[in-house]
Amino acid sequence: MSGDDGSERPDENAAGDDSGPGSESGSGSKPESKTAEDPPATGEPTESAESYLLTYAAPFLGVLLIAVGIPLAIVGGYVVMQDTIGLCGDPDIEVRHLEDGERPAETVGDLDYDALSTAEQQALRDAIDSPLEEATVDGEGLENEDDLLEGVVIDVDGERYYVRIASLNSCLEAEPLLFPIGSVAILVGVAGVLTPPIYRKMAGFEERIQRDRGR
């Protein structure tokens, strides 16, 4: 009995050692559960230099391009369309019949009818016959522009008339390429202004993808 008990006790102790603290540490240890949640994507860029460039510099340059592009596009478009829709053209003259001894002003000079160009003579006679007392000098026939701008007295068939330019109707001279250049500047400027919100969305989307891959 004692012999059997003695032989069985070491086995029990050995078995107890197997199920002791060592076995409990091996079998009872469980992996720690991940309780901390991943922080939500902020949508902000991770690179400070890149963030500053796309968040502040890009929209600022965009506003400048828009401010420059608008007047360029307006002037360029006006230059292209002014002659087509009749915004400029040949100068107009107006006449006024003078009574005997009448003079508009002491500084107004006289000009001989023969000193006028053919186009100016024709415009003068058309203005005399017109109820509006105005006519257009056709083509490049305005040779006495300086005198007519000041106003002169001209004797036509024994009648005296005060003649002066009513409107030069001169066309604006500028490069037609200003219109496409201004339009491109406006489009690029709008893209620059819209860069920050688009970049934030793209940065947030990229952070979500990287976070999903790390899980």
From TrEMBL:
InterPro entries: DUF7979. Residues 1-12 have a biased composition (Basic and acidic residues). Keywords: Membrane, Transmembrane, Transmembrane helix. Signal peptide: none annotated. Pfam families: DUF7979. The keyword Membrane applies. Residues 1-47 are annotated as: Disordered. The chain crosses the membrane at residues 60-81, 177-199. Residues 16-30 have a biased composition (Low complexity). Residues 91-163 form the DUF7979 domain. The keyword Iron does not apply. This is DUF7979 domain-containing protein. It comes from Natronorubrum halalkaliphilum.
